[in-house]
């Protein structure tokens, strides 16, 4: 069995799901406010949740792991915040192409937790998991989700007008990307800025 993923940021713990996480997993993905923009992923019954969770646990130990979604909790209290990660869409000669997603309980919105978590996930993807291209997106009205992407240097590459039927109307969707080469340039730039930010 492969080693489970475990990361810490300033305020958060990001880790693979384990068998004991079922109740919290179900509570998160069955919460209608949390899943408002991801209604196709919302869970509606314990039976549905058990099947979904079993797939998650099974995939973690797979030799060809496809889902890299992590449980997010507060470092100090261990309260569940949400989930973040990506799905492997393809594995090319120059690296994996993945699609990113994230969601959290509304009580944690606007506190900077998701940008903090995404920074760590991107670092892992590009330096440890042979990822070359990360894509993600959101409805244009979901400004909070778009800010998470922007704060981590993701680049908008498409605007799909009236693309998706959601909550009784057609809505516009935005698509973002980040390539490994683009991420590396940002890291170098951020490193140089930090070197010159000290007092004299």
Descriptive notes:
By secondary structure, this protein is an alpha+beta fold. The protein has 5 helices and 8 strands, in the order E-E-H-H-E-E-E-H-E-H-E-E-H. It has an 8-stranded mixed sheet, sandwiched between helices. Strand 1 (6-8) and strand 2 form a beta hairpin. Helix 1 crosses helix 2. The chain starts with 5 loop residues before the first strand and ends in a 5-residue tail after the last helix. The model has no long low-confidence stretch (mean pLDDT 94).
The fraction of residues assigned to DSSP E strands is: 35-45%
Summarize model confidence as the mean pLDDT.
Answer: 94
Are there runs of 5+ residues with pLDDT below 50, and where?
A: none
| CA gyration radius, whole angstroms | 17 Å
Largest sheet: 8 strands, mixed
**Strand ordering within the main sheet:** 1-2-3-4-5-6-8-7
Number of helices, where a helix is a run of at least 4 consecutive DSSP H or I residues: 5
What is the overall silhouette? globular
Instruction: Spell the H/E element sequence.
Output: EEHHEEEHEHEEH
**Extended strand count:** 8
Helix content range of the residues, please? 25-40%
- The separation of the N and C termini measures 51 Å
Going by helix content, strand content and strand pairing, the class is alpha+beta
